[in-house]
Amino acid sequence: MVYLDSHIKYFSYSPSCVVRIMKLNLHNIDLVMTAGLVSQFPDDGLPQIAFSGRSNVGKSSLLNSLTGRKSLARTSSAPGKTITVNFYQIDKQLYLVDLPGYGYAQRSATDQARWSAVVEQYITGENGPLMVLQLVELKLGPTKNDEMMIEWMNNCGMNYAIVATKADKLNKTEYNAAIARLEAHPTFRPGTPIFPYSVKSPDTRDYVWDEIKRQLANSK
Ligand SMILES: Nc1nc2c(ncn2[C@@H]2O[C@H](COP(=O)(O)OP(=O)(O)OP(=O)(O)O)[C@@H](O)[C@H]2O)c(=O)[nH]1
Ligand SMILES: [Mg+2]
Questions:
Q1: Torsion sign, CA atoms 62, 68, 74, 78
Q2: Which residue among 62, 76, 115, 118 has the greatest number of ligand 1 atoms within 8 angstroms of its CB, and so is best to mutate?
Q3: pLDDT of residue 107
Q4: For residue range 120-156, what is the model confidence (pLDDT) as tens digits?
Q5: CATH superfamily of 27-219
Q6: Which of 10, 12, 100, 127 is 20 to 30 Å from 82 by CA-CA measure?
Q7: DSSP secondary structure string, 34-75?
Q8: pTM score of the predicted model
Q9: Nearest CA to ligand 1 atom 14
């Protein structure tokens, strides 16, 4: 109880209270755009949070879990097929942006180049994301492609947080070891938030939303 009291006090006196009271109606969600060309992407000034990661890491599943919708974003049994970017407008206040996955072995060289062009133009462009949620699979840690993506974001000054997916695949010992490895990972910018996540038991869901809302509050 003592702990809870001080926790609540902390939130009511710190800037985080902005985060706590910001309400989003998750019943009000629209897929407003599925686009393959950056010129078609929304430019209405609403902040955008992008989901990046290799194909099959769980981007669409995370989007569904955060919004509490079972099948808002299509989860793939045939990964890496399309190179389109999906924009989900949340309560007319922000977009969650499902980026195409990378590292899909069967993708042609031409498609790989298209992927790079779309993601690079989007992230460095005028209407780029406020923050990238960079997904890595907790059990595997960052792949070579993940590291390249993170290094690239470090270099272009992109703001990002790590979501370590499929946390249910590890037992407690493996889980602790995997988190410790991520926390010590040399590629992440110092201070990068790391959120383990499982869509099967999404008990870190509020922490991810708090981080998103914190970014929105700071950008105003
Ligand atoms: N066990 C477990 N499986 C998960 C979790 N998240 C996603 N998956 C599974 O991983 C597979 C890929 O998930 P997607 O959400 O389609 O992955 P994606 O990153 O959107 O893939 P692309 O759209 O191809 O880039 C699916 O079979 C999901 O059910 C999780 O937290 N736990
Ligand atoms: Mg997907």
A1: positive
A2: 76
A3: 76
A4: 999 999 999 999 999 999 999 999 999 999 999 999 9
A5: P-loop containing nucleotide triphosphate hydrolases (3.40.50.300)
A6: 127
A7: EESSGGGS--SS--EEEEE-BTTSSHHHHHHHHHT-SSSSPP
A8: 0.90
A9: 58
